[in-house]
TrEMBL record:
Organism: Saliphagus infecundisoli
Highest taxon in the source lineage: Archaea
Protein name: ParA family protein
Span of domain AAA: 11-173
Pfam families to which the protein is assigned, alphabetical: AAA_31 (PF13614)
Amino acid sequence: MGSASNRTPRAVAVNVLKGGFGKSTTGINLARELAERNGQALLVDLDDNGHTTFNLGYRDRYEGENHVQDVLLNGADPQNYIVSVTDGLDLFPSHEALEEVETNLKSAMASSQRLSRNVVDPLLGDVYDYIVVDTPANRGKINDNALFATKNLIVPLRPESGWESGITQTNKRLIQEARQYFELELLALVPTDLSERLDQSTRDRNLLRAINSRKELEPYVPNFAHLSESDWEAIDTNEYDGDLPGIRHRGSIDKAHRARKPLRDFDSECDQLKCYEELAQIVEQGRVVR
């Protein structure tokens, strides 16, 4: 458990302007570890694909009353729509009509401040010490709301073609634009779903090499994905004996989704839980600590 005396309530968005990069998996398991360590956390699903909501077993909420509209546009109490996932972890579900919410936000007063005013501000610190927001993979008012409300960002990256454009667009079209209007902190870049060798020219190697060698990216690489130059030398001479870096592909992670559970509740012995634990620490600390 985290130390209550050292705890600063914090909200964070899991965001990258590219679909299929593991936002939902990252958000679910980060929020679960924050709840495990601190006693209470809220996961807010604002992605229109609803994967987070489906993967936690609440498809009925996705297809029912448009509670997101009621809360963001009409000021309804979000606690009326929050559901329990497991001890300490709650969910504000997504909804199939988020496109309608997006459209209506464009003409609303203080349109980028609704999530902050109606959800995060009243709940953060009083009801939940940590709030994690899963976001859409495209620019828009819902994404603007997520960034303004949390002011902290975690970016998941998968080792596939397009990861570089994903982070470039996220930096240019989200982070840099947002910083013209409010403080926004990048907390971590998270390589996820890795499965290939590193001693050959694979996508895993290319991704890890790039983020660890670029001065502007390396400070945001979690320790579980951090490789020094001496580590790379050891990898290339078959002398590396450390843990394989990044969040590795595991059947348990996929099976947990099908079982409608976070990873910890499906397989508490999975070796990748330590990565999500470190992500929780990064959110608690507000940065990567070497």
